[in-house]
Write a structure and sequence with these properties.
By secondary structure, the protein is of the alpha+beta class. It has four helices and seven strands, in the order βααβββαβαββ. It is 30% helix and 38% strand.
Length: 146
């Protein structure tokens, strides 16, 4: 059974860093200096998914303004993909952000993952893209309450 947590404790942050290192640094060969950036502060909010004691997925939450937030650095360990963990983690993050008063969520998605976010109700804007040198990024957004 996968458990989703609002990561606050040091050990939970260690789990977040473990998943991001395994999934993004090792999995996609992204340098640590690019994966961990100014968005990772002691105040940053993260969701962590645990399979028992093993951290298996995570995402970072970033408040853009009073009504808008971004879900960033979404990653699931390769051996746990295609088990709906990513979907459930996004829904958990949306619920948490809704509690915080957010009405719009933005995800800048890898172009190959846009379909995943569209199944969750995100609308892709293919006119807003960026090529980071690592991935082609597409802007997506979802209104979670009006």
């Amino acid at each position: 059974m996968i458990e989703f947590l609002r990561a606050t404790a040091l050990w939970q942050h260690a789990g977040v860093h473990y998943v991001r290192t395994e999934a993004m640094v090792k999995g996609f060969n992204i340098p640590l200096s690019l994966e961990f950036d100014e968005g990772d502060t002691p105040e940053t909010q993260y969701v962590l998914a645990l399979d028992g004691v093993l951290p298996v997925a995570t995402c970072r939450l970033h408040r853009v303004d009073g009504q808008t937030a971004k879900i960033e650095r979404v990653c699931v360990l390769e051996s746990y993909r295609d088990q709906k963990i990513g979907r459930d983690m996004i829904l958990f993050a949306e619920s948490w952000l809704g509690e915080l008063g957010v009405s719009k969520i933005v995800i800048t998605s890898r172009d190959t993952a846009v379909g995943f976010y569209e199944t969750l109700g995100y609308r892709a804007d293919w006119n807003q893209t960026d090529d980071t040198g690592v991935f082609k990024i597409v802007y997506t957004e979802k209104i979670i309450r009006s």
